[in-house]
Specification:
Elements lengths: L5 H4 L5 H14 L5 E2 L11 H13 L12 H15 L8 E4 L2 H12 L5 E6 L4 H8 L3 E6 L10 H7 L4 E7 L11 H11 L6 E5 L24 E6 L12 E4 L2 H14 L5 H12 L3 H21 L15 E2 L10 E2 L2 E2 L3 H11 L2 E2 L1 E2 L9 E4 L4 H15 L4
Parallel strand pairs: 1-12, 3-4, 3-5, 5-6, 6-7
Antiparallel strand pairs: 2-8, 7-8, 9-14, 10-11, 13-14
Helix pairs in contact: 3-10, 4-10, 5-6, 5-9, 7-8, 11-13
Amino acid sequence: MSTLSNRIKSIPESATLAMAAKAREMKEKGIEVISLSLGEPDFKTPKHIQGGAIDAINSENYFAYPPVNGYADLRKAISEKFEKDNGLSYTPDQIVVSNGAKQSIANVFMAILNPGDEVIVLTPYWVSYSAMILLAEGTPVFVRGTIENDFKATAEQVEQAITDKTKAIIFSSPCNPTGSVFTKQELEAIAGVLKNREDITIISDEIYELINFGEKHESIGTIDGMIDRTVTVNGFSKGFAMTGWRVGYIGAPTWIAKAANKMQGQYTSGNSSIAQRAAFSALTGSMEPTHQMAEAYEKRRGLVYDLLNEIPGFEVNMPQGAFYFFPNVKYYIGKGTEGLTINTVNDLCLFLLEDARVSLVTGEAFGDPECLRLSYAASEEDLRTAIARIKDSLAKLK
């Protein structure tokens, strides 16, 4: 009998997708569940972006295989976006368009890692980073930020984690799952630690760039000496409400861009031609819908912050970007009801799914077993109802 590979056995199922699946199963049984588990905008893709796809279909010019690394005009538009918005100089040949930022990151890891290479992962981290590193036969090295420092690991911690096996470092800003945003000063400190290790590639995941409520977004690639070593990851899912279109991209040193293109050519080839035309419309059209979405998220952030602070035992900080809260809920570990003891935050999330009918994600999946992630990419009505249910259910735990 054939067996599965050790490779696939070594990685966990995506916790966010697993919780979403459980919530869907309950909904299919007629149980009303409010889902706050997925990082998915609740807005529709703006009309002018939809129009770009419709025009492409009607033109009948985009039915053939597209270039593996993306259409030339889209890569040029991305190059210009990097320069205008981020101060990053990547030529169109240094851009690779992929099937979502998830594939963009996976391409890079597969292209640069050899067995045993270490990747420093600033923690809390997006769930798939560690699995991708393991699939590429690398070793994730976690450097943990805590709620006291807005979940941001420090340059000193990074320095202590570097070894002669360190090949890369990865982080997101704004961060999924915490919403934390690194300041220019914090990025400069990290760059200062890395400046004498030119063999370390920096992977900066900036997919939430357009959902930023604090200081101006900063890219580590703008710091002296960093651009030739930095892979900047971005995409259209979050800022343009295009999760289902699956369009992400990197700007990278030429040697990495070529390798990512080679990798993608063997696995998936180019991203959907029609989705790329929609992405082109997103970059070259009005940004007003994106600004309106960000304003709505900021309003919801204030609402959720106030509501979460009314729940006993929740430690909550104020995130500066993305659309998540990541409260510390260790207060509830060891508590329970008749026949049930909460031993982990995963237990807590399952209890809230069944009792409060609200789906959340355990922080363990993101590198912090004391926290849970709550997405506020939902209507204000759903958010008020969900948090009221959570509060009522938690009051049952003694």
